[in-house]
């Protein structure tokens, strides 16, 4: 998946699922890593990172 596609997908996930989308992406990566699907897991980690950047820093 190209960088632009990852960011588009990450934005769509955030719009559709809100902050829970980040946890969902992380869980997808964990599940795929446990199955040995390392390249696909890497893509999900990249999507997770993109969503974290879009979300911005935590406010306290």
Attribute tags:
globular; about 0% strand; about 60 residues; 3 helices; mainly alpha
Compact overview of the structure:
By secondary structure, the protein is mostly helical.
Q: Cα distance, first to last residue?
A: 34 Å
User: How much helicity do the residues have?
Assistant: over 70%
Unreliable runs: none
- Please count the beta strands (DSSP E, at least 2 residues each): 0
| Rg calculated over all Cα atoms | 11 Å
Question: What this model shows, in words?
Answer:
With 60 residues, this protein is mainly alpha-helical. The radius of gyration is 11 Å and the shape is globular. Helix 1 (3-17) crosses helix 3 (38-55) and helix 2 packs antiparallel against helix 3 (38-55). It has one domain. The protein has helices at residues 3-17, 20-34, 38-55. The chain is built from three helices and no strands. The model has no long low-confidence stretch (mean pLDDT 93).
Task: Write the topology of this structure.
Elements: H1 3-17, H2 20-34, H3 38-55
């Amino acid at each position: 998946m190209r960088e632009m596609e990852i960011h588009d997908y990450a934005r769509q996930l955030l719009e559709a699922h809100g902050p829970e989308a980040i946890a969902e992406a992380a869980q997808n990566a964990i599940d795929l890593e446990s199955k040995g699907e390392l390249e696909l897991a890497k893509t999900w980690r990249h999507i997770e990172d993109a969503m974290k950047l879009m979300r911005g820093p935590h406010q306290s």
